[in-house]
Amino acid sequence: KTHLTSKVLGREIHYFSEVDSTNNAAKKLAAGGCPEGTIVVAEAQNTGRGRLSRGWFSPYGKGIWLSVVFRPPFSPMDAAKCTLMAAVAVNRAVNAVAGAGCGIKWPNDILCNGRKVVGILTEMSAEMDAINYIVIGMGINVNIDPHEFPGEIAATATSLAAVAGCQIPRLKLFTEILAELESAYNTVKNFGFAPVLAEWKNQSITLGQQVDVHGIDRSFTGLATDIDDDGALLVTTASGVARVLAGDVSIRPA
Length: 254
Ligand code: BT5
Prior knowledge:
254 residues, alpha+beta, BirA Bifunctional Protein, domain 2, SH3 type barrels, 2 domains, 7-stranded mixed β-sheet, 5-stranded antiparallel β-sheet, 28% helix, globular, binds biotinyl-5-AMP
């Protein structure tokens, strides 16, 4: 028996032992008219996805592979900020439950000791100026032994258990994530994105760092100074301030 404290998130739960991708399942449910707050959670994903058709390693029973359907009254232009909202909520939850000292790397990663413990994938369906649905997918490495990570991510990934030095109760973390996500969503609906963006800045490990930006059409280096009201990362370079709305950012070792 679970004891969810969220009221809207999780009122409809689709639980799979194994699924291709919880985001795929959630998008199908959303397209079929499921209510806001519907969640999809799986013990394992066989084609877990990152951004830009990258993969997401999702072993059985060792993580939280979770997607949430939102039907926000926002503009499609606000979708990027929903990713930041989710990062703030999940970071609160992992730090509360695992005591892990994690921070947010722009835009969608949560890192501990410089290694990735959480990835977030936001996908949207919009028509004209209205959002039909947003699916926010979260992958949390909970009780993965670091030796289990496949070669290509072994050097960059870690798990909450590895950082905390003990197994982390998944159900408690899952409940906490839904509660924090619902609270952050209510804040945004009532007060706009400003409070959440301010908290994002406090939890950021990117601001104040030299970063390498790998955009879709350009790559450059600079000092990450701020995020703007759209959630774009502002990077100061020799030739001015660049505004990065999408792309990959790596933090240069000090
Ligand atoms: C992300 O993409 O970080 C978004 C990941 C979202 C996963 C969740 S799980 C539930 C839901 N259903 C899905 O199908 N997806 C979402 P990106 O920033 O593109 O990072 C992807 C990269 O992270 C990969 O190319 C690997 O290098 C690395 N990676 C893959 N699996 C990882 C893991 N478990 N932990 C840490 N790094 C990983």
